[in-house]
Design goal:
8-stranded mixed sheet, 442 residues, binds nicotinamide-adenine-dinucleotide
Length: 442
């Protein structure tokens, strides 16, 4: 039901005078902050990482794949602020949460970032604020985890403040879609919250798709990612089977792709990577247990996808063996540390597992990645390695070159011309000319 508070916020959104705060200025939050700024709203970026706040104050972009000038339109603008002072959350009329949602050690959801953010917002919550969660999570999080924290002060959701979920569908590195052009799902905790959140996004995003509840929006995001995880697992299994039969899985996919309906191409690889596909499906698995329901597709897909690094290492070992070389003491170069092409994002990248598994077998492993000059300490890995130069002499000095990520910057012909043995997990060698007897797909 409309009241003064609702109408006042609606009016501010319509006039673009509502202050939009974004919490968590990473791969998702920073482009979103810029999108609202670009559409004319005053914006405040919040992050606990002081280095990011300082970089933004200097007009520097720390997300390299977006280009150096990405934050320039905001820097110096009177409508832009970035801060690590969460007492300023009360200044924002709309607060959008883009903090991480990783998995714990036992594949359980780690909602500590959302919980902490909920507590931060609650401290300065005032009537007329709209809160939207964008972080990927299981259905029920917005209502069960955020709502009680925000309602603690005695304000009522739907009339004093408003709460909704709108999943982020960002695909870093993609050129054909951006924050403004990817359709935005929005579902509220109640009708008023849903309507206000949809009204807000309509000002910055071309196509907003309202759904009936926050839970539908939460579940839709998981469906999208589970669909990918399952299909990637299916095609990874096809790769293993067809390779054994001497059939090229990549040619098979190209052939199947010519069907104009009922088929969407997915591609095999050395394992799953990134913040989403290896992680998000298990959020549903965890929640499904509460209802006594198994998620067999998710578990099976996880099993197959997690077996891929071992498969690739096995293929490498066999290929070296055929050339009379043991893996013990072999020099191996891994090409690509990022989990996908042309970005510097190494989260959950299978390259780390490949390197560690090869090292455990006694190989001397180095890596090259034009986007990742050195490794840094991560939750599961601390390799302490630096990217090595990719000269023709260096390429020729390795017993095997393992292609893990097909960055556009790589000159595949040059790599094919100089490497002794190539293990190709990405079909990167498909167009190279000359001899191919040193190329093994894996
Ligand atoms: N990266 C993607 O492609 C992508 C796509 C769709 C959805 N998502 C989802 O969006 C969410 C954010 O992902 P991301 O890739 O942007 O993560 P990220 O790690 O790039 O960014 C998260 C940011 O939040 C900050 N942060 C952490 N705790 C905070 C706190 N308590 N208060 C304020 N800031 C805090 C971090 O310093 C970091 O800058 C996740 O739930 C993720 O699953 C990511």
């Amino acid at each position: 039901m409309a009241n003064n508070v609702t109408d006042a916020l609606k009016d501010k959104i319509a006039r673009k005078s509502a202050v939009v705060g974004v919490i968590g200025l990473g791969y998702v939050g920073l482009p979103l902050l810029r999108a609202f700024h670009e559409s004319g709203f005053p914006v405040i970026g919040f992050d606990i990482d002081r280095a990011k706040i300082d970089a933004l104050a200097r007009g520097e972009n720390y997300l390299k794949h977006l280009g150096e000038s990405f934050v320039k339109p905001m820097s110096g603008s009177p409508r832009f602020r970035a801060t690590d002072d969460f007492a300023r959350l009360g200044d924002a009329d709309a607060i959008i949460i883009c903090v991480p949602t990783p998995l714990g050690r036992h594949l359980e959801p780690d909602l500590s970032y959302i919980e902490r953010t909920g507590d931060d917002i609650a401290k300065t919550l005032r009537p007329g604020q709209l809160i939207v969660l964008e972080s990927t999570t299981y259905p029920g999080t917005t209502r069960e985890i955020l709502l009680p924290r925000l309602a603690e002060k005695g304000f009522t959701c739907g009339s004093d403040f408003f709460l909704a979920f709108s999943p982020e569908r960002e695909d870093p590195g993609r050129r054909d879609f951006n924050t403004q052009t990817i359709p935005k799902l929005v579902g509220g905790i109640d009708a008023a919250s849903g309507e206000l959140a949809a009204a807000l996004y309509r000002q910055a995003v071309e196509h907003v798709v309202p759904v009936s509840t926050a839970e539908v929006a939460e579940a839709a995001k998981l469906l999208e990612n589970i669909y990918r995880a399952v299909n990637i697992a299916m095609v990874n299994e096809m790769k293993v089977v067809l390779t054994e039969m001497g059939i090229d899985v990549w040619e098979v996919i190209e052939a199947a792709k010519t069907k104009p309906f009922g088929f969407q191409a997915f591609y095999p690889g050395p394992g799953l990577g990134g913040h989403c596909i290896p992680i998000d499906p298990f959020y549903l698995t965890w929640k499904a247990r509460e209802f006594g329901k198994p998620t067999r597709f998710i578990e099976l897909a996880g099993e197959i996808n997690h077996a891929m690094p071992d498969y690739v290492v096995g293929r490498t070992l066999l290929a070296l063996n055929q050339g009379g070389k043991a893996i013990q003491g072999a020099k191996v170069l891994v090409l690509g540390l990022a989990y996908k092409p042309d970005v510097d994002d190494v989260r959950e990248s299978p390259s780390f597992e490949l390197i560690e598994k090869l090292q455990a077998l006694g190989a001397a492993v180095e890596y090259n990645d034009p986007h990742v000059p050195a490794t840094h300490k991560m939750r599961k890995h601390d390799l302490g390695m630096k990217s090595v130069p990719l000269t023709p002499e260096a390429l020729a000095s390795y017993d095997a070159v393992l292609i893990a990520t097909h960055h556009a910057a790589y000159d595949w012909q040059r790599i094919a011309d100089h490497a002794k043995l190539i293990i190709d997990t990405r079909n990167a060698m498909k167009r190279v000319k000359g001899r191919r007897d040193h190329i093994v797909s894996a």
